[in-house]
Amino acid sequence: MDRAQQRSPWFWVPSISFSQAVPYVAVMMLSSVMYKKLGVSNTDLAFYTAWLYLPWVIKPLWSPIVELFGTKRRWIVLLQLLTGAALASVALTLHLPEFFRMSLAALWLMAFSSATHDIASDGYYMLGLPTQHQQAAFVGVRSAFYKLAMISGQGGLVYLAGRLTASSGDPAWAWSLVFGAMGTLMLALSAYHQLILPRPDTDRSHTGGGALWKDFVYTFRSFFQKPGIKATIGFLLLYRLGEAQLLKMAAPFLLDPRSQGGLGLSTETFGVVYGTVGVCALVLGGLAGGVVIARFGLKRSLLPMVFIMHVPDLVFVYLATALPTSNVLISACLAVEQFGYGFGFSAFMLYMVLVADGEHKTAHYAICTGFMALGMMVPGMVSGWIQQQLGYQYFFIWACVATLPAFFMTALVRIDPQFGKE
């Protein structure tokens, strides 16, 4: 091996995790905040931005193509380039009369590129970190740097958009600069990874002419023939049923005026209390979750981690009921909820690694994340309508009730007692 092949995972695991998060943050949070500030209703912003999850849902349909043609390394670099161009193009649409439709089209291109990038990246992780112990050791690192990208987006960029809007009085101009900055960042990451990524011996093309279709069919069939697959699919779909709805309405709730049942935070304050304090807590939760799994194994850790993930959702019920005015108290509540979310999500990530282990692990992991995205997309689509029917207080009570299926599915999944342990 040359020096590039021997390069420490610390040179590339954090940066790839960061690059995976940037476009996902654009879909998950920034699009909702942006459209809220540009006058789009909760129902429309929830419905249409939830549709942006679709590429992550259906990416298993083309995941074997990524595995069979070219190297994961090459896919990563080129797709980061395309994602950066798509994000930057959003900035060009926001002053147009049809800004909502045209910006959504640009975000759709970004989402398809990002979903394909995730396929290559997840496969590259498993090639670059070939042992279960390495995967378990770095699951917390992956989660942490993914969440650090969320801090940069939900915290720094939202705060910047708020300051630019306050100084200019033009939210469209402010958000144009924000999305332009995100596109530039992705282009820089593409150039960095072209120089820095190792070239594992196992990262190679698997083209086989007429064997392509046979391999494609076999890849999907072998996934659905895994032991306990029904419980696995149910777990992937329902693990975040309540969280999917809560997350989609968190930004509107924090930004809406108190006369409409929200907390009435400014864009800058939102960037601090949710995008920075909250996500820092989420990062710490992810790191703590990785440590706990490495110490006790996934099987022993999973059920307690499900409790720690979902019970703190009750803080939103408190916030919607009490409507506190103290930013310190609001920040503390959000920190508790986000720590629990990060802690429990570490278990979910490692469970998908367990399910994907074996032949065609790249494609099988993509199928897992497709089901995960479907479990986020469908509840998110209807969350805006449910909120407008119930109001924020009863909506968050409903979101907490919707976490109960996760506990039931956790009791059904099969896990090797030694998986994830040091």
Rg over CA atoms: 21 Å
CATH architecture: Up-down Bundle
Helix content: over 70%
According to CATH, the homologous superfamily is MFS general substrate transporter like domains
Tell me, briefly, the overall form: globular
**What does the largest sheet look like?**
none
How many structural domains does the protein architecture include? Answer: 1
Mean pLDDT: 86
How many H/I helices? 18
How many individual β-strands? Answer: 0
The CATH topology name reads: Growth Hormone, Chain: A
Tags for this model:
single chain, 422 residues, mainly alpha, Growth Hormone, Chain: A, 18 helices, MFS_trans_sf, AmpG_permease/AT-1
Q: Can you characterise this structure?
A:
- This protein is mostly helical and 422 residues long.
- The chain starts with a helix and ends in a 12-residue tail after the last helix.
- It contains 18 helices and no strands.
Give a brief rundown of this model.
78% of the residues lie in helices and 0% in strands.
Write the layout of secondary structure elements.
Elements: H1 3-6, H2 13-37, H3 42-51, H4 54-58, H5 63-68, H6 72-90, H7 99-128, H8 132-168, H9 171-196, H10 211-224, H11 229-238, H12 241-255, H13 267-296, H14 298-310, H15 314-322, H16 327-356, H17 361-401, H18 404-410
Helix pairs in contact: 2-3, 2-7, 2-8, 2-9, 2-12, 3-17, 6-7, 6-9, 7-17, 8-9, 8-13, 8-16, 11-17, 11-18, 12-17, 13-14, 13-16, 14-16, 15-16, 15-17, 16-17
